[in-house]
């Protein structure tokens, strides 16, 4: 027990990194997802095929493989990245983790948004048009509120999956919660630190699940 308390500062620092990874990935991934949805709306065949290929690759391959591809693969492109002024970023494990996670969750979020938009009743949009509403007004007053409700539940699942999935960052020397536990174990061989980390993940995932469920309940009861 006393040993675990001595590990607390490192574990808390790692927990902060875990939350940072998750938050930034969800934000940048969300922006990427919105861009993908908008580009798909252009209905350009080659562009749509490219976006579908990207989505299929990111959703069909393991997250850890994607992280290895970005982190270790970027070393093979070092001369080109240096010429572009990007090598300093890609040589940073934290940047590579955020970049990879953003690409991954962006693909999933794009499918969530696409599904929500596809499920909208066209009659509601037509009714808004009959009232003389502009496209921007329809987007703000009809499409966005309704699509947000439809997307909330699968988006909540993606938030939780991203929180748990962020632990793979530890394999490229990012000291998130699991990475901090690995560092502690390497110097102490105290296996209880992994049990403590497991409990932390269970507690925070459950707290997040309940919080998102509460938001979902309030939204659907409006």
Could you explain how this protein is built, in words?
This protein has ten helices and no strands. It is mainly alpha-helical. The chain has a single domain (2-220), classed as MetI-like fold (Orthogonal Bundle). The protein is flat.
Largest sheet: none
The CATH class name reads: Mainly Alpha
- Put simply, the count of helices is 10
In helices, the fraction of residues equals over 70%
State which percent range the strand residues make up.
Answer: under 5%
Number of E strands:
0
Distance between the termini: 46 Å
CATH H-level superfamily: MetI-like
SS-derived structural category:
mainly alpha
* CATH fold-level assignment: MetI-like fold
Overall radius of gyration: 21 Å
What would you call the shape?
A: flat
Average pLDDT metric: 88
CATH architecture: Orthogonal Bundle
Q: Low-confidence parts, pLDDT < 50 over ≥5 residues?
A: none
How many domains would you count in the coordinates?
Answer: 1
Succession of helices and strands: HHHHHHHHHH
